[in-house]
Automatic annotation (TrEMBL):
<dbReference type="InterPro" id="IPR011604">
    <property type="entry name" value="PDDEXK-like_dom_sf"/>
</dbReference>
<dbReference type="Pfam" id="PF09588">
    <property type="entry name" value="YqaJ"/>
</dbReference>
<dbReference type="InterPro" id="IPR011335">
    <property type="entry name" value="Restrct_endonuc-II-like"/>
</dbReference>
<protein>
    <recommendedName>
        <fullName>YqaJ viral recombinase domain-containing protein</fullName>
    </recommendedName>
</protein>
<dbReference type="InterPro" id="IPR019080">
    <property type="entry name" value="YqaJ_viral_recombinase"/>
</dbReference>
<dbReference type="GO" id="GO:0006281">
    <property type="term" value="P:DNA repair"/>
</dbReference>
<feature type="domain" description="YqaJ viral recombinase">
    <location>
        <begin position="86"/>
        <end position="184"/>
    </location>
</feature>
Length: 188
């Protein structure tokens, strides 16, 4: 899990976020705190700002190539779920939950783009709340039945495809788990 660590190294930097191996993945400046922002080296917004300065006038392919070179593997490793850093890192990325929709999108009104950019939010319904409530118990039961350890997962990114991300519910040595808890038996 990413934790803020106090920093007295520079007056400008007031918090540094590190991963499990104590690798810096983001830093928060005094100005950033006042604006409510963390400069994260893996966020697409931050990388776009750097890209525009480094290669003005370049195209989307050049941006993706730039991002894949700039993203360190420490940034890509398991960003804790449902944290401000997790939300920021998902912003502008096509996540696994939106991948199918993105591959089939033929509308021009922009609802998918709005969802990816965070302009629209899906409200949790009764079925979604049920799934959230049961997720831990389901993973424990799967662990028991498969006799394997399932680790909770946050956002996973890979530098080779920097615009994609995934937040699976769990990962074992040999499998990735996404828990679904349908209300109706017919759904199964």
């Amino acid at each position: 899990m990413k934790q803020p660590a106090s920093s007295n190294v520079a007056a400008e930097t007031i918090a540094t976020y590190v991963n499990e191996s104590r690798t810096v993945v983001a830093s928060e400046s005094l100005l950033g705190r006042q604006l409510g922002k963390v400069q994260n080296e893996g966020s697409l917004h931050y990388m776009m700002s750097k890209f525009k300065k480094a290669l003005p006038g370049s195209d989307a392919e050049a941006f993706i190539s730039y991002c894949s070179q700039e993203m360190s593997s420490s940034v890509c490793k398991n960003i804790a779920s449902k944290t401000p850093l997790w939300r920021e890192m998902r912003y502008g990325r096509i996540t696994a939950s939106k991948l199918y929709e993105a591959s089939r999108c033929s509308t021009t009104e922009g609802s998918l783009v709005n969802a990816i950019l965070g302009a629209s939010k899906v409200k949790n319904n009764v079925a979604m709340e049920r799934g959230i409530r049961l997720e831990k118990d389901v993973l424990k039961e799967v662990e028991r039945k498969l006799r394997t350890k399932i680790n909770r997962s946050g956002l996973i990114l890979i530098p080779e495809n920097p615009i994609f991300g995934a937040s699976p519910d769990g990962i074992s040595e040999n499998a990735v788990f996404e828990v679904k808890c349908p209300v109706l038996r017919e759904v199964i």
